[in-house]
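Bug #77: duplicate submission created two jobs. Keeping one. Sequence:
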Amino acid sequence: MDLGQALDLGREAFYMAMITSAPILVIGLVVGLVISVFQSVTQLQEQTLTFVPKIAAMVVAASFFIPWIARRMLDYTQTLFAAGP
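Kept job's structure:
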């Protein structure tokens, strides 16, 4: 394996990590934004109000997206092993 192949492999792995984590992170971002707006409007500054709904939404999103993430990672792994040395 030369330097170019190693860089391509690293780039593809980084891209796969971004693509598979994006849906869960976006849902956490949206829920956090909605809760922040709600806290600003009501002037309710409870710390647990920020974290508990965000964690719950991300767990639900993770359980929903796990089959898709697993399929993407399996396809990537098969492609990686098929390329071989």
